[in-house]
Amino acid sequence: MNELPQQLVNGLLLGSMYGLVAIGYTMVYGIVQLINFAHGEIFMTGAFGALTVYLYILPDGTSMMIALPLMLVGAVLVSVTIAVGAERFAYRPLRNAPRLAPLITAIGLSLALQQAVWAWYPNATSAIVFPQIEGGPFKIGSVTIQTGDIFLFIAAPISMAILGYFVMKTRTGRGMQATAQDPDTAKLMGVNTDRIIVIAFALGATFAAVGAVAYGLKYGQIDFKMGFLLGLKAFTAAVLGGIGNIYGAMIGGLVLGVAETLATAYIADIPGMDKFGSNAWADVWAFVLLILVLLFRPQGLLGERVADRA
Amino acid sequence: MRQRSLIAITAALSAGALTLTACGSRDSGDKSSDSGGTVVTIGVDAPLTGDLSALGLGIKNSVDLAAKTANKKKYVDGVTFKVVAKDDQAQPSSGQQNATALVADKSVIGVVGPLNSSVAESMQKVFDDAKLVEVSPANTNPALTQGTNWATSKARTYKSYFRTATTDAIQGPFAAQYVFNDAKKKKVFVIDDKKTYGAGLAGTFTTEFKKLGGQVVGTQHINPDTKDFSAVATQVKNSGAEAVYYGGEYPQAGPLSKQIKAAGAKIPLIGGDGIYADDFIKLGGASATGDLATSVGAPVETLDSAKEFVANYKAGGYKEEYGAYGGYSYDSAWSIIEAVKKVVDDNGGKLPDDARAKVTAAVQNVSFDGVTGKVSFDEFGDATNKQLTVYAVENGAWKAVKSGTYAG
Lengths: 310, 408
Prior knowledge:
heterodimer, A: 310 residues, mainly alpha, ABC transporter involved in vitamin B12 uptake, BtuC, two-stranded antiparallel sheet, 11 helices, 70% helix, B: 408 residues, alpha/beta, Rossmann fold, 7-stranded mixed beta sheet, 5-stranded parallel beta sheet, 13 helices, 44% helix, elongated, L-phenylalanine transmembrane transporter activity (chain A), L-isoleucine transmembrane transporter activity (chain A), L-valine transmembrane transporter activity (chain A), L-leucine transmembrane transporter activity (chain A), Branched-chain amino acid ABC transporter permease (chain A)
């Protein structure tokens, strides 16, 4: 049986999740030139926010059809609160400091958030089971789609469409573009840049929260470390797509997800490559791809060549 | 500006302090009441937090129970045992730091642990240099006792290292025989996590399975940091395998089993003692039914010798289950206690100055009826008790299917 269609779907699903998280990296970077390494943890706290709603707020046995929207709200609330709090108390005081200072702060914040969840969330010292949607998998031809993946399949494109509309068409969105191009001039033109930056953090956190709920539904478990590797991959996706470009983040995510999946599935079939083809090597191939792309297009797949205004 | 950066530094420092206190508060040290005499410490090193904490906490509690039992019985006259537990988070680097810390603590007379073979590798030399005895209840990699060339020429590497667990040299083949002869599966897909334990187990399984005439239709190595095994699951489904053998631990095995079944391959996943944990069933969900695991020894509950342990453990009021290694941990601790008793008796009721070296030598010769049966060690430091059991997931719990010993 030909497994290519199934592997492509696997890759696209994984990639959609990378993309949802990558948006947060790319938006924040585009506007304040900060690599927010705590974004992976903002994603993780979103998953715990959703779980809290399910476990401690809703009555036991609530149908997922009712619970899911509320869990999504919980996830977004937690993620956005933490992201905006981080911006206000950790990053804003450092906005005029040398670039390394906020970067190190972001790494510290990332560790602090991980450990805080580990220490204070009940039973979070090991993986916690995430509620699942009932019902069997769906088959389209030879492709099987898991019930938990349906959410991701629907949520990722819708989120992207909303984001595209917001950034391109609304007044606030145009304010964001202006701030990204030149914050000082934008300020002179009457754009409230502080507000725009907060919105960028909040939007990124919202998409991370959607991704976090999708992660829980897809894998059936969440843990305090889940944001670390996924955050790194999402950051890679953002760079691959062209950091600063929101469509680039999504495309970068999809390319990365598909590349990893296909590397796992097919590299071993190439004669002489059987040692380098396993799932454990998928990350290596993903980064080889990143290096190749950056060699030929240093600005990323969709990135624009802009003068560094450091 | 100056003030601002001050705020930032304070924030960063307090965030760091937060992290530290978070770790510190879990550092457990259950001190038993001192009843005079010399106080000696039995160190414990295990993952007390993180993915594998379910197994690690069971180890810690069981050692604690052994120490308390010895104190209550006044088993060694004039010596009171206490337990200091260190968390290695299943990381070799943390394990080595803990080993150094335990060596530095002069009251430590022996150490029980660790859980992971990879962690043990990083600790062995530290303990051996200090002549401090280490007894692991759970390490199954053959190389730890018999050297890296264990398959061809056995040579003991560290005189201070012992274990009460059976090795993968026996566990992998035992599983292969069960899969081939009893479960009648001829085509297997082999997956491991590339760690010392997982890769070792998958290797010994594969060798024996092929020898029996079985066919390995595919192999994969997964990255233990991810949860996305969909590409691997699709491969398994299309390979036509009748079973999957997984060398690794339950945090990955649970989701792996689930994703393989979800991909449409309704075949059992078989693993070693690393997946024999209740959390495997929790993470694997309903589709884990029918999955198999081999684990060292006979099921603790069925042994007469273990009834007392189980009852005492319950009475001890421990929050966590004793888990897969509880009985072995108790026996590991008890072998140290026996050795201390021997050393103290030989020295006229007092602990000698070179107690660590003497205890290490004494552990080599211990022999007693423990929780898991007769406990003694062979010339490599391996347990002489080589019993194994196959367990299957039924109605959301592990059920013993077959016990036996592997005979070549």
